């Protein structure tokens, strides 16, 4: 899947910008009031165009907002990927795992639909709306089903520290409020088929832009760090398809599948 040095290995499909949470670092400003839900037709057009240019991606990740607010759409989009030989994976905050029985039933449906992996987002931000206990319930159901999973712990590090390839300085939430997610990390971090990772993927979009601006004088420094990695930023291996149809290329929207800018917007990557 190479074209002028570009390799698109993953498509992050943002099923909706509606969410049960309203996290301070969210790049899509997801909230309970989010009104956009991605159509299967727009997703199909996008996937077909990407596959034509670079070949079928390896990963087809369904995220949000919170995608499981629209489970039927999730399974429709999963089938769209599966029909092209791409195993779908789900990114969720697990709000729907209200009990072990409910979690087991939905996990069984996910496995039958061909999902190969589930990413669970839980941390002090999400815990304001989704009890961390839901993540524990979901993890147990996934273990029983032998379905691989990964726990995303979205930490914001102290200003001046750096994490990840772009090294953006951040601010850490209070440890006391994050005790359960630290326990999750300790419990499953050494397993081969599962994992947990503390990270923060703050993008200069949505409330992520506000998070960067909140750094004050350090905001300019953070953006200079981002500029230093321009080659990495502008030639990503992951493209995002937002719920409103925007094609997001790391830190900027480059077009929309619902307008005349698509598919020509992808030309900037060629």
Description:
The chain is α/β, with parallel strands linked by helices and 270 residues long. It has a single domain (2-255), classed as TIM Barrel, CATH 3.20.20. Helix content is 33%, strand content 18%. The protein has 8 helices and 11 strands. It has helices spanning 40-54, 71-82, 100-112, 132-145, 179-188, 206-213, 217-228, 230-234; strands at residues 2-3, 6-7, 10-14, 59-63, 88-92, 117-121, 149-154, 194-199, 238-241, 246-249, 252-256. The strands form 2 sheets. Strands 8-7-6-5-4-3-9-10-11 form a 9-stranded mixed sheet. A two-stranded antiparallel ribbon has the order 1-2. Helix 2 (71-82) links the parallel strand 4 (59-63) and strand 5. The protein is globular and about 45 Å long. The two termini are 12 Å apart. The model has no long low-confidence stretch (mean pLDDT 84).
């Amino acid at each position: 899947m190479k074209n002028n040095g570009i390799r698109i290995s993953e498509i992050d499909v943002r099923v909706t910008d509606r969410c049960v949470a309203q996290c301070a670092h969210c790049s899509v400003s997801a909230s309970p009031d989010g009104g956009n839900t991605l159509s299967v037709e727009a997703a199909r057009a996008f996937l077909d165009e990407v596959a034509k240019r670079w070949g079928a991606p390896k990963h087809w990740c369904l995220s949000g907002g919170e995608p499981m607010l629209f489970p039927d759409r999730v399974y429709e989009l999963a089938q769209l990927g599966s029909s092209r030989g791409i195993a779908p994976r789900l990114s969720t905050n697990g709000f729907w795992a209200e009990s072990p029985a409910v979690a087991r039933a939905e996990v069984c449906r996910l496995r039958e639909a061909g999902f190969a992996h589930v990413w669970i987002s839980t941390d002090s931000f999400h815990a304001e709306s989704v009890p961390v206990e839901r993540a524990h319930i979901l993890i147990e159901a996934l273990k029983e089903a032998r379905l691989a999973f990964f726990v995303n712990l979205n930490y914001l590090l102290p200003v001046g520290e750096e994490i990840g390839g772009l090294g953006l300085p951040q601010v850490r939430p209070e440890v006391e409020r994050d005790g359960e997610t630290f326990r999750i990390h300790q419990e499953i971090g050494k397993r081969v088929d599962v994992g947990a990772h503390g990270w923060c993927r703050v993008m200069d979009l949505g409330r992520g832009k506000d998070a960067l601006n909140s750094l004050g004088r350090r905001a300019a420094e953070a953006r200079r760090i981002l500029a230093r990695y321009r080659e990495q930023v502008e030639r990503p291996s992951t493209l995002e398809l937002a719920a409103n149809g925007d094609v997001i290329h790391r830190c900027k929207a480059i077009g929309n599948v619902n307008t005349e800018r698509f598919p020509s917007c992808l030309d900037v990557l060629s």
